[in-house]
Amino acid sequence: MDINRLFAKPLVIAALLVLWPGLASAVERRDIWISNTVDLLELCTTPLDDPLRPQSINYCMAYLDGAVDYHDAISDHKDMKRLICYPNTATLEEGVLVFIDWAQENQGDKKLMGEPTVIGVVRALAAKWPCDQ
Fold first, then answer.
1. Got the DSSP string for 89-115?
2. All structural domains of the chain
3. Whole-angstrom Cα distance, residue 40 to residue 54?
4. Count of H helices and E strands in the chain?
């Protein structure tokens, strides 16, 4: 039995356990909490050099996707008036860009930017893809 092999794996595991907190703190932890339109705009426009950009962009995309899915489900199920009539060719990425453009254009409007996030998303997408009904 090789004594070096016997202790190698536990030593590697011990080293990882000791170093893990330091590695984890190398990237600042940030709780993502959005309560209004401006919060989502900040997430969707996280700077390229921000170490948490991937998580922020994923959250942004997931939020928009969920908001549109909910809109579609409610509109289709309850015979409620659709607010967003996007084309079949629209993509999630395009929706995010539409939201960013709309929010940046309206950034000076404290009322719009202070509204609940889902209202800002619907306003942005409906401005781009209104329904003619």
1. T--HHHHHHHHHHHHHHTTT-HHHHHS
2. 31-128 (1.10.890)
3. 14
4. 6, 0
Q: Give the pair of three-digit tokens for residue 132.
A: 């003619």
What is the Cα–Cα distance from 118 to 67, expressed in whole angstroms? Answer: 6
- Report the candidate in 46, 14, 40 with the shortest Cα–Cα distance to residue 103: 40
pLDDT digits (tens, 9 = 90+) for 92-105: 999 999 999 999 99
Residue-by-residue DSSP string for 20-37 = HHHHHHTS--------SH
User: 125 and 69 in contact (C-beta within 8 Å)?
Assistant: no
- What's the pTM? 0.75
Dihedral (CA of 35, 120, 81, 59) sign: negative
Residue 77 pLDDT grade (very low, low, confident, very high; cuts 50, 70, 90): confident
